[in-house]
Amino acid sequence: VQFVESGGGLVQPGGSLRLSCTGTKVPYNGEDIMTWHRQAPGEAREWVATLWPGGGTLYIPAVQGRFTVSRDEAKNIMYLQMNNLKPEDTGVYYCLEAGSTTWGQGTQVTVSS
Questions:
Q1: What are the backbone angles phi and psi of residue 88, rounded to the nearest 5°?
Q2: How far apart are the first and last CA of the chain?
Q3: Beta-carbon neighbour count of residue 102 at 10 Å?
Q4: What does the DSSP assignment read for 46-103?
Q5: Residues in Cβ contact with 84 at an 8 Å cutoff, skipping those fewer than 6 apart
Q6: Residue 19's pLDDT is what?
Q7: Which residues of 53-76 are buried (b: 16+ CB within 10 A; e: fewer)?
Q8: In whole angstroms, what is the distance from residue 33 CA to residue 99 CA?
Q9: pLDDT of the residue at 74
């Protein structure tokens, strides 16, 4: 299953954004382990967060307490709520199933004053 990300943009430090992740051909049904990753300019792609079907979550320490991953079952959408954004959060954000190698286009997040 391939997913499409949206919701990125330009925001000032301390601001918030909510990213969305939906299936492109098959609706996201919440039955798979889902992940968010990001790639900063000139850096390798890194894992950011994981959402388990039961609702459990895990985050990298750099975003713990600021980012929240969740799922809207009625809308078949996974979200990444990002608060208190920092310039180091800048990058392209991707969502995909755990273990998948099918990357979408991602959505650009830029945190700058």
A1: -70, -5
A2: 37
A3: 10
A4: EEEEEE-TTS-EEE-TTTTTTEEEEEETTTTEEEEEE-S--GGG-EEEEEEETT----
A5: 14, 16, 66
A6: 98
A7: eeeeeebeeebeeebbbebeeeee
A8: 9
A9: 87
What pairs with residue 67 in β-bridges?
82
The structure tokens listed for 44 are 């390798």
Q: Are 67 and 17 in contact (CB under 8 A)?
A: no
- Cβ burial, residue 37 (10 Å; 0-12/13-18/19+): middle
Tell me how long the chain is: 113
The answer to whether the beta carbons of residues 45 and 39 sit under 8 Å apart is: yes
CA–CA gap between residue 8 and residue 19 (Å, rounded): 6
Please choose, from the candidates 21, 36, 18, 34, the residue with its C-alpha nearest in 3D space to the C-alpha of residue 82.
18
Interval 31-78: pLDDT, tens: 889 999 999 999 999 999 999 998 999 999 999 999 999 999 888 899
